[in-house]
Amino acid sequence: MSDPLRDEERELVERAKRDPRQFGALYDRHFQQIYRFVYSRVREQTAAEDVTSEIFMKALKAMPRYQDTGRPFAAWLYQISVNAIADRYRTLRPSSPLEDFHDLSIAGPPLEEQAAHRDEIRRIWALVEALPVQQKTALVLKFQEDMKIEDIAVAMGKTPGAVKLLIHRGVSRLRDEADSLRPAE
Amino acid sequence: MSMQHDPELDDVLQDQELMHLAGLLREGRMSDPPLDDAFRSALRRQLMNRAWGMGGGGTPWWQRAFGPAGLAWAGAAAGVVLIAAVVIFNAVNPSTGGFNEVIVSSPMSDQSAVRLGQPILVKFNQPMDHPSTEAAVQITPATTVSAYSWDANTLAVLPASNGLAPNTQYQVTIGPGAKTASGQLLSAPKTITFVTQPPPSPSPTPSPSPSPTPRGVLTGQHLLANVQGGISNVLWSPDSSTVYFIGGKSALDSVPAAGGDVTVIVPDGVTSAAISQAGDQLAYIRNGKIEILTLGSATTTEVAPVPAPLVVGWAKGAVEWTTADGVYTQGAGGQVKVISLPTIGGVSTVIVISLSPDGSHLAFFQDQSLKVLDVATGNSVALGVPNAQFLGWSPDGTGVMYSGPQAVVTSDLFGKSITTLPTGAPSWSSLDEIILGSDADLWEVRPDGSGLTKLAEGTFQFPVWAPNGTAFTYFRGGALYTASAPLPPPRPTALDAAATVVNAFMQARKAGQLEKATALLDDNGKKVYSGSSPALNLLVGGDPSFSRYYLLTQEITGTQPDTAQFVVRLVFSHEKRDVSTYEETLTLVRTEGSQQFLVHNSTTGPVLTLGKGAEVVSVEVSPGIVKITFDSDLRAATVPAGVIILDSKGKQIGATPVYVSRTVSISGLDLKPGKTYKLVVLSTVQDVGGNNIAVEYDLTFVGPDASKAGDKRQSESPSPEPQASPSPTPSS
């Protein structure tokens, strides 16, 4: 059974492959999520703009060679993004504190509980930053970008099994790190 | 604290503690990063410049070949190319005589929306003998060819009748008579198949996709006032001639919209202001009191409500205000409480935000929720997600705007969202256009999300429309400016709105999405499709399979309420070939409230077998003329007696049919709205191959209603009258 959104995307991709001037529609559709992903990794606006420009320029150039593998087009953009960010990391390290970026509003429990919960989340995400790059990327794509494992596999150039392993190892390591940081009761 | 369950992780994290951590990670979504809209626009421009440089805009070779100059050179060039090709080919293949197998392909093969002006392209894997190959071309449905042209090993076949027929499946066969340049015959006939797009609509409506290029230059841009310390309320007089604003030191000032000196009305302390619907009085709150200024006489009266007023407005010509505990108005004997504001445990927790322009509703914040209160009934509804921000009212007070995630949401006063719009500071005009201002640019969009157009680039903070719907104010660099926007593009006609619903309905059925299709039926429509008629199933399938559909006719047949009738043809295929078809006649009615068209009724016609003579593929109905397009070239002599229109009494009407390029036009009609007519195509009509139409074709249609059918602004727009015309939407 076909998915109209996927069909529509496929149509946009086909058009852009035939005529690069049609790439604008794909840019409009995916700019926000790619920029957001890039920003979350480089955490500096100018750097995020540079990397995002590079990603879309590369995507436009590579468009005629794009092959539909049945996965969302975004997975391919994430693949370019992951590589571009990796290149960037070789010369630039993120410097801003993570607390500025992972936030949420929680309805219901008393304020002090909300604050404690929020702190716990921030702490966990701060630990993510210390993970090995591959584990960190897999976790960010899964939990922040809400991607399916098969799409993460495309983005990271790995098999779904390898991605599962990275997620398992990453979350296990977070548990160990969190335990070691937890004050003794 | 909710933690969404992700089944994908069940076999990855088989431990409660790990799942808990996964839940925390999922909850800690990143907040929106800082984004410069100017960067986003600039990058898009850069990409588009690069894209243009990459090509894709060149003229196709066949267009050059069939162009006036190209045709003149074609004969000479073809001779030279042929000689050169033969010489080169013989040099390269001196003894073998060529390749073993001839492979025939086409870039159009299996496409579902081939353009009508496109020649039929047939590509061979080796040089072909042109005369024998051209002679071996067979086209179904019957098509007269006006010219053949070659580009290397690709043959372009140009149909004589002004391009290809719409909504038609073509089967183009290269018969076994075709020879390669070396004289080898085709081992077997090769067929390519494709489907053409619908005919172009004579009344195109604006594209629903965003237009990133500024549509036109704003006019009359000029400075109204330098405002130190920012600006809060901006009010326009009802005649759009004067702008009132609360500026620095909370002073209430006015300035002519055409430009001029700023007049200080109240020097300080004004916290809320509202102009009466008649424009003759200005009410404002100052020092805990309401002052009402009559503009003509410059006299002021004072109301001292208890408790202190927070927001002032006007309702039915009388001043209205809110306090922490309720909404009040001024009665003959003093203040009258219209309604109490909701409390939690008897304690007022309401933060009052704004009274609607007609004073009938109040936006307020309570318990992290944005709510709208109906002042008459006291009922309130929550808008959007917790902590949504109020962004404004529609001028008639029936719609509201609030912030959603990265979006502006438009909604009715019952909390039912209409659509989400791009983010920006919005203002809703009397002509039902919303402008969205920002530090980077200014956009215009309809409240339903259609017609998104960039008006200008630059800083346009807090735009506020004038009542005339063309002028607006905005804030830039510590000053208040005004400008006029160009008239917005025509709105979709009622027919286009209905066609959009029909397309969504048919696409959902084709995709097997029962729920989506059912959502486009009204109560009667649901009964019809769940009734006893076996042919009227929402989901159609099996073998032959439902491969495509197209709109044969579309008409507005009534206006109160708007009613449209569509004849939709469903096409069924077996092994890629269209084999049968039947028609459904859908009646759509625009519903009150949501103003959406829904399918109200449906009837079905008999199943017809395809491939036996010419078929009608498009019928365009207007009061004075009916145009019937066939998929085949016809023998013109068989048309006058074979294509007729009958009125409801069975009497033939209209002038003698005129046949040009597959289309039969019957003029001299005076079709009455709502009356039933019948198009009859007799089996005496023949295609150019001499094949008669297999069975007589009858199509019942209704006289179109050419009166205005649509929305509030249609009478002011240059949009053409609604016409019966097939939609340009690809149908598969």
Write up this protein.
The complex is a heterodimer of chains A (185) and B (732). Chain A has 185 residues and is mostly helical. Chain A is built from eight helices and no strands. The termini of chain A are far apart. Chain B is mainly beta and 732 residues long. Chain B has eight helices and 50 strands. In chain B, the strands form 13 sheets. In chain B, strands 38, 39, 40, 41 and 42 form a five-stranded antiparallel β-sheet that branches. A four-stranded antiparallel β-sheet of chain B has the order 1-2-5-4. In chain B, 39% of the residues are buried. Chains A and B meet through α2, α3, α5, α6 and α8 of A and α1 and α2 of B.
Features of the shown structure:
heterodimer; A: 185 residues; mainly alpha; 72% helix; B: 732 residues; mainly beta; five-stranded antiparallel β-sheet; four-stranded antiparallel β-sheet; 8 helices; 38% strand; disordered C terminus
Task: Detail the topology: elements first, then pairings.
The complex is a heterodimer of chains A (185) and B (732).
Chain A: H1 4-18, H2 23-42, H3 45-62, H4 73-91, H5 111-129, H6 133-144, H7 149-156, H8 160-181
Helix pairs in contact in A: 1-2, 2-3, 2-4, 3-4, 4-7, 5-8, 6-8, 7-8
Chain B: H1 16-27, H2 37-53, H3 61-66, H4 68-92, E1 104-105, E2 120-124, H5 130-135, E3 137-140, E4 145-151, E5 154-159, E6 169-174, E7 190-195, E8 219-226, E9 234-236, E10 242-246, E11 252-256, E12 263-266, E13 270-275, E14 281-286, E15 289-294, E16 299-303, E17 311-315, E18 318-322, E19 326-331, E20 334-340, E21 343-344, E22 347-348, E23 351-355, E24 361-366, E25 369-374, E26 380-383, E27 390-393, E28 399-404, E29 407-412, E30 417-422, E31 425-428, E32 434-437, E33 441-445, E34 453-457, E35 461-465, E36 471-476, E37 479-484, H6 494-510, H7 514-518, H8 523-529, E38 545-559, E39 562-574, E40 577-590, E41 597-604, E42 608-609, E43 616-621, E44 626-630, E45 643-646, E46 652-653, E47 658-660, E48 663-666, E49 676-681, E50 697-702
Antiparallel strand pairs in B: 1-2, 2-5, 3-6, 4-5, 6-7, 8-37, 9-10, 10-11, 11-12, 13-14, 14-15, 15-16, 17-18, 18-19, 19-20, 21-22, 23-24, 24-25, 25-26, 27-28, 28-29, 29-30, 31-32, 32-33, 33-34, 35-36, 36-37, 38-39, 39-40, 40-41, 40-42, 43-44, 44-48, 45-46, 45-49, 47-48, 49-50
